[in-house]
Amino acid sequence: MNGPVSLPSAHSTSVLPSEFEVLCPPPQLLPGENIDQYHALQATIFRDLGPQSAIEWLLAIDIAELSWEMQRYRILRHRLLNTYRHKAIEMTLRRIDMVGIAPEFQDAAETYTIYNALDWQLDASAATDIEARLRAYGFDQHAISMEVYVQAREIFILFESLLNGAQLRRLMLLKEINNFKRSISGGP
Fold first, then answer.
1. Are residues 90 and 113 in contact, defined by beta-carbon separation less than 8 angstroms?
2. 188 exposure class (CB count in 10 Å sphere: 0-12, 13-18, 19+)
3. CA–CA separation, 74 and 8 (whole Å)
4. Helix (H, G, I), strand (E, B) or coil at 4
5. 69: phi then psi, degrees, rounded to nearest 5
6. pLDDT at residue 25 in the model
7. What global pTM score does this model have?
8. Is the C-alpha dihedral spanning 96, 102, 106, 108 positive or negative?
9. Neighbours of 118 (CB within 10 A)
10. Is the pLDDT of residue 2 over 80?
11. Coil, helix or strand at residue 162
12. Closest CA to 177 of 85, 62, 71, 82
């Protein structure tokens, strides 16, 4: 599950000055996320923003964290769409394969359709054959993608709102850090 990641000693020499390390908690990474990629993104943002004071570092840390969250949301949204693509293939195969099936054979045909969709996901050769069969019935990749978005619309809206919320918070923090730097330098 989520939890602090113990950092190897190589990461202790980060871009963050040692006096401000207390401001930056260990990242809460999900399984499969890469600590080195997290630190690379964080270091890039720190270099771009060039924070000097504790307040600037706090804002920069939050900006880096929001940037990581946005990257996470995009990856999860993409994986979710791939999952729904499998369901869309299954649904489209149902539209083709279940037409005209006698009621006593519908359960067997349904099972066969589920297995075909699984074959599409796991076997490249079967996927090619199934996609050709779907195209023959007028279901190209665009039609499948439309079905994906129809099926995933509610969860897709959730991811879009998460992304938009993180982006808005990040933009507000960027504006805040710029305003803070201007007030320190005495500029307009």
1. yes
2. exposed
3. 27
4. strand
5. -60, -45
6. 87
7. 0.74
8. negative
9. 14
10. no
11. helix
12. 62
Structure-token pair, residue 140 = 């190209």
**DSSP element (H, E) containing 97:** helix 54-97
**Residue from 100, 90, 109, 99 nearest 147 by CA:** 90
Rounded Cα gap, residues 162 and 174, in angstroms: 18
- Is 40 strand, coil or helix? helix
Q: What is the DSSP letter of 17?
A: -
Give the three-class secondary structure for 28: strand
Q: What is the pLDDT of residues 25-44, one digit of tens each?
A: 899 999 999 999 999 999 99
Q: How far apart are alpha carbons 127 and 171 in whole angstroms?
A: 43
Measured CA to CA, the distance from residue 74 to residue 68 in angstroms comes to: 10
Distance (Å, whole) CA 61 – CA 81: 30
Q: How far is CA 81 from CA 39, 85, 90, 167, in A?
A: 28, 6, 14, 21
Chain centroid to CA 86: how far?
Answer: 18
Give dist(CA 37, CA 47) in Å, integer. Answer: 15
Span 20-29, pLDDT tens digits:
888 898 999 9
